[in-house]
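tool_call predict_complex ligand=flavin mononucleotide
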Amino acid sequence: MLDILYKRRSIRKYKAAKLDPATVRQLLQAALLSPSSKGFQSWQFVVVEDPEILEQLALAKKTAGFLKGAALGIVVLADPETSDVWVEDTAIASTMLHLTAAALGLGSCWIQIRKRQHTETESCEEYVRRILGIPENLKVLSIISIGYPDQSKPPYSESDLKFDKVSLNKYGSKF
Ligand SMILES: Cc1cc2nc3c(=O)[nH]c(=O)nc-3n(C[C@H](O)[C@H](O)[C@H](O)COP(=O)(O)O)c2cc1C
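tool_result ok
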């Protein structure tokens, strides 16, 4: 696990190759294995493989353009009626997708949708909801773009880790 965590990076350039259905299924297995508050599983997912829809989603905001070149975008949704801590539930599921992609040798990146604006008058959430026909009662947290990596980034090393953010026993005591 730590080896994967050191190597995990946000990858925004992908090869044209598609993912085989078994790999896509493994990614969804990971998402559906996510822990959730009280086990209420407030998340839902839309798997987008259609290049035309990916291109439209890539226009959600400036820092989503690379979604156009991805094999897959997994849109992470929540039903807020199911859990008051749906933000946490869906953030964990997004992380599970991102880490599982890394473990499978895929590149992926989190695209933030919640609390971001598409235009001055339309939020990213409203835009994504409009493109995908998502019901009004569901929230949109993120889109995880996934594909075979076409860029390499250096892994992290222990010297990158800010252990000064960690206290021992009482706040401010050196770990
Ligand atoms: C909550 C969250 C939102 C993010 N939103 C975006 C985004 O909208 N677009 C993007 O390109 N990267 C996004 N990222 C990826 C971060 O930019 C990236 O994790 C950070 O720069 C550290 O780089 P690394 O993932 O390679 O370690 C997001 C990451 C997180 C955790």
